Amino acid sequence: MSHTAHIRSHRKPRRNASRIAMRAGVAGGVLSTLAVASASASASAAESETTQTMELPTLTADLAAQVAQSAEATQQAAADYELQAERDAAAAKAAKQAEANLAEAKKKAAEAKKKAEEAARKEAAERASRSAARPTLTATTSSAPAATHTSTATGSAAAVISFVKAQLGDAYVSGGTGPNSWDCSGLVQAAFRQVGVDLPRVSQSQSTAGTQVSLSSLQPGDILYWGSAGSAYHVAVYVGDGMFVGAQNPSSGVVEKPLSYDPPSGAVRVL
Hints:
two-stranded parallel ribbon, rod-shaped, alpha+beta
């Protein structure tokens, strides 16, 4: 027998192989689980980061669209405000112009009324003056021999009388020189122009244009005047038989009247 046969071995007893294998498997499983969990966490983090990264451009594009829409709305509001301001300014200008036009129209109407009133007063004064002179003239003409009033016109006088009678019924217009409206001196001037006599334009000058003749020796074609020579306010043409033709006033126009209707102050002869 060996001398070591009864000596107990100092080596540790070997563990059971199956238990070691099981523990190794458990450890491997734990590690695998940890690895999977870690990989899953990494994948989740990566996906989250990717999601955030992918969503960021979308949010930025939406924000840019909102900003652009807001800017467009602001620009439109500014344009609308500017347009309204222009309309308000135009309306104010139009109202101001209308007010100025109304004031001007009122002013012109007042001036026209004043002129009409002055013309009416002047005509009334002229009629009063004619009425005052009528008794003296009537006495003068009635005492004159009838033979001195030549009734038959010849030559240039006949042409003048024919012209003024052709205008009977035409309107009286202050400053009128024909062909369808006249004032007193405009008609006389046009009549004598037919026979080559160039008379002054106004009655004051026409009353001194020829030779003064008495009312008792009138001849057809003589120029009658009312007022004094050189300051006459009305003229007409004597047409014979105690009648005259003249542009009287706006209400009667060009008429033929007897001398007694409105006795003249004097007469001149240019033919």
